[in-house]
Amino acid sequence: MQFIRNHKKISIIILVVLLCFLFVSVTFGRYLYEVINNYILETKGFYFNSSILTIDNKEYSVTNWDGVNNYTLTVDLNNRKNAFVKTTADIAYEIYVECSEGITCTLSKESSILYKDRDSDSYRITIIPEREFEENEVVEVRTSVMSTAPYKKKMAATYLVGIQNANFTYSIDDYENSKYMTLSMLNSVTYYEVEEAFGSFKVGDNVSLEEYDALTDDEKAKCFSAKVTLTFDPNIIFLDMTASAYLHRMDNSQKLVKIDNFDYVSSFSFKMEATSNVKIIFYKKNRKNNFLYPIGNDESIVTVDVVTAK
Hints:
By secondary structure, the protein is of the alpha+beta class. The chain has helices at about 1-5, 10-45, 210-215, 215-220, 245, and strands spanning about 60-65, 70-80, 90-100, 105, 110-115, 120-130, 140-150, 155-165, 170-175, 180-185, 190-195, 205, 225, 225-230, 235-240, 255-260, 260-270, 275-285, 305-310. It has three domains: about 1-45; about 60-165, Immunoglobulin-like; about 170-190 and about 225-310, no CATH class. About 15% of the residues lie in helices and about 40% in strands. The longest helix has about 35 residues, at about 10-45. It is flat, with a radius of gyration of 25 Å. About 25% of the residues are buried.
């Protein structure tokens, strides 16, 4: 006691070091327990894995949310050790999510069963803003799953979602064994630009939403808010030919490639309305592929080029 009174600074330093050691020991001990538990479960032929979730709560950073519209995260799960070995029983599991202040997070489901003959499953987290966000702000989303049968195993991940006030953003929703992937595009521009003069409007003029609504169809065709060009390899993914964006594509924008004597679309362009979103389905040649983007893959399987109104 006398030593502490006479050496206050040293005593404080020793206390801080001891607390840090205790924290690290507890954290490492918890991680070590999960590693050992996972090893034991795998010796029993139980495989419950994910490309996103891990036993050590992996952290991801994304910066393509505009902070205004709802934002969706997709999490995949599988029952495989590798391409040849998988769990031979159905896996029941529960899903959890926690969010930082300023947002509400909803789950597409709170529990599910990963059936042995399906190999994979997924769920979605929708981030809903409760206030206005400024560019470069970051919100935190923590999600975890716990298998309840036939064995217990916990996996988790933390998303740090940054706000980027971009005029145009896009993402791909996909998971292994899905027949198709979905490309989602969001145009946040709130006006149009004239590209062919008409009436009192000159080339380059801006047209507000109210002015645009009052135009004729011919006049609207001479304006744009966003012009998008999609390019992709039909050897890997096939376009859903019923997609509205494709059916209303810009004249002479379609490009085709011949595969096994058949013509396949490899590129096309279309216009997006102001403050609108578009979803396009692409069927996958190999269901084992997972084209999730931007989380999951550093590059998009679809090249998206866009010109927005200025």
